[in-house]
Amino acid sequence: MRRQLATLGISMALMAALPVTAATATPPAARRVTVALWGDDSNPGTTARPFRTLERAQREARPGRPLVIDLRGGKYRLSDTLKPASSVTYEAFGYGTLRQEEIVLSGGRVITGWTQTRGGIWEAPAGGIQTRQLYVDGRRALRAPLGAGLPGEVTTTETGYVLASPVPATWSRPDDIEFAYTFPFWVDARCGVDSIRRMRGKTVITMDQPCWSLARKLYGADGEPLPAPTAIDNSPSFLTKPGAWYLDRRRDKLLYHPLPGEDVRKAEVVAPVLQTLVEGDAHTHDVAFRGLTFADATWLAPSEPAGFVSAWSNYRRPAVDGWLTVPGNVAFRGSRRITLSGNRFQRLGGQALELSRGVRDVFVEANRFTDVSDGGVVLGAVLPDRTGISRNVVLRDNRIHRTGVEYRGASGIWLVTGDDTTIEHNQVDNVPYTGILVGPPGEDGGRSHRTRILANRVFATNQVIEDGGGIYLRGKQGDGYADGALVRENVVTDAGAQNFDLGIYTDDTSEYVTVDRNVVHGYPGSIGGCADPYLRDIRYRGNFWDDRVPDGIARRAYPGTWPTGAADDCGDPQGLTFEHNRLLSPDRAAVECALIPACARIVAAAGPI
Q: Which pLDDT value is given to residue 9?
């Protein structure tokens, strides 16, 4: 980050999820059982007489003998987190064929019993649920939004706000209201309201503690004082926009304002209630998921009094020394030999997928991540853990888009620290912040080794928050170029309308990075970073770029965006080398690239489009 917060090869053989044995050994044949919503757990689990539940099927697992659980089509509504059994493959029936059936593992509850009330609002029994999301026929509904800002002149105080306008005092259920703060430089926070009252001709808004104190301390210390909110939501007074909803916890009712022509009684209305759909731990090994959809999970921590005071996908809690990380709705922590192939991750309220606490030998291929509140994939030493780096993880041929729907500082892919990570031939697009992020949030987060970022297609990043980029690295990437990071043959184009975003961003403390034969254009800056406290040993070879420099940044004698100490508290980068790079015209970079065979080949080979 330009202004950093102070504290802040496995093979396709794994797809069978078979135990690793001697190289010449023949693995035992896998047994197959079937699960179907119309089955019965007293059945033998055959195709004709399937089990009904995954829990029953998992009891067929035996040590040393692989088991394949074929799931017949339908929505499997989980009542609790699925703990996968080792040596088991969970697979859509007909996976990989034209007969593949659609399987959804859902952590949601269907809301029924709707009745119409005043003003076109409908309500239904909530059944005691707690959630931060609602989906109507698969569409993410709006959480009762008021819109941006507070009315009139506003004064920020140590406990909240004072303003002349009497309007906020008319908002019902003020203790349910949340204020959101999204500002250009990676600031994204949410704090709840404690109370709103009129005093001496003024409206006094008292914010939740400790959220308010955490936010003022964090952002104020870094030169980002907390002004009025950029958005306000979650009061029944705000149910004026069609498609909005509100959970009335006092009455245990769910309220919804339908879209024009929408009959909520006929719609499938789903409230996510589970926070974790699937969770593997250090005892979990040799597991595969193929052809499934993971959907309808929430994450409730932002509703706590400490709210969501964040930077990147990290957030604060007063009892924790340092940062916490938004957790995965699907998570493998310390697990070994895991395969995720051909799945969909959607309608999720946290990170979609977490691979942490020393996971090893993980293969994530041809999955799709979309409509996720935070990031797509987070892996490595995920804070507060500082030691559990990942090893031998491959992310290949995945598409990640429309992530960070709620928490805007999220990245599509975030490798915190790991050894032998390959991020290859993925597509990351339409994200609010960075596409692919590699590195820890602080100076003491350890280092990665042998990270390979290859042939990815990244575009339309930084749609909301700036000071990020298409591919963003920070921190030590190795002990030398031989085991450092390699960024090769990626296509990084067309950022949002922010000012300070870079196509390939090697930021403060970056070290030992090779940037080789990439195509970069359409960003405010093609390459660069801030040397604070240092930035060194980055080599650029054979790249094609338009070498833009953001407004307000002085251009140096060599390519790239390298802010200076006088203007931006950045020093001079050391050990930069440039060899055989080619300049594209900023106003016609894509056309020129198409006419250069070597450049066109890179664009054609990147994926997965």
A: 35
Q: Flag the least confident range among 37-41, 89-93, 151-155, 222-226.
A: 222-226
Cα separation of 357 and 383, whole Å? Answer: 10
Contact of 240 with 120, CB cutoff 8 Å: no
Name 271's Cβ contacts closer than 8 Å, sequence gap at least 6. 108, 109, 111, 126, 129, 131, 133, 134, 135, 247, 254
Q: Which two tokens stand for residue 355?
A: 């691979």
Higher pLDDT, 590 or 386: 590
Residue 48: which residues within 8 A CB-CB, separation 6 or more? Answer: none
Residue in this structure with the two tokens 């961003």, named with its chain if needed: 505
Calculate the average pLDDT of the chain.
Answer: 92
What's the Rg (C-alpha) of the chain? 25
Predicted TM-score (pTM) above 0.90: yes
Residue position matching structure tokens 């993971």: 294
Model confidence over 543-568: pLDDT tens digits?
999 999 998 898 999 999 999 876 67
pLDDT per residue as tens digits for the range 371-386: 999 999 999 999 998 8
Copy the structure tokens of residue 291.
């052809």
Q: Is the pLDDT of residue 518 over 70?
A: yes
Q: Which of 578, 581, 577 is nearest to 536 (CA)?
A: 577
The three-point CA angle 558-474-4 to 5° equals: 95
CA distance to 46, 101, 103, 157, 485, per residue, from 49 (Å): 5, 17, 18, 66, 52
Is pLDDT larger for residue 222 or for residue 214?
214
Give the Cβ contact number of residue 64 at 10 Å. Answer: 10
Q: pLDDT digit string (tens) for 95-153?
A: 999 999 999 999 999 999 999 999 999 999 999 999 999 999 999 999 999 987 899 99
Query: Which tokens is 378 given?
Result: 């987070």
DSSP per position, 205-241: EEEPTTHHHHHHHHHHHTT----S-SEEE--GGGTTS
- Euclidean distance between CA atoms 76 and 346, whole angstroms: 15
In this prediction, residue 3 carries a pLDDT of 40
User: Phi/psi at 56 (nearest 5 deg)?
Assistant: -70, -40
CA nearest to 457, candidates 432, 486, 430: 430
Residue that has been written with the tokens 């055989």 in this structure:
580
DSSP state of 283: T
Average pLDDT for residues 224-241, to the nearest whole number? 88
Nearest residue to 209 via CA among 163, 164, 170, 175: 175
Q: Between the CA atoms of 234, 236, 242 and 245, what dihedral angle is there, to the nearest 10 degrees?
A: 60
Q: Secondary structure of 453-498 in the HEC alphabet?
A: EECEEEECCCCCCECEEEEEECCECCCCHHHCEEEECCEEECCCCC
**By the 8 A CB rule, do 205 and 178 touch?**
no
Alpha-carbon distance of 160 to 152, in angstroms, equals 15
What pLDDT does 430 receive? 96
Q: Quick check: 409 pLDDT over 80? A: yes
Phi (first) and psi of residue 216, to 5 degrees: -65, -40
Q: How far apart are CA 131 and CA 129, in angstroms?
A: 6
The secondary structure of 105-134 as a DSSP string is EE-EEE----EE-GGG-EEEE-TT---S--
The string of DSSP codes covering 22-40 is -TTPPPPPPEEEEE-TT--
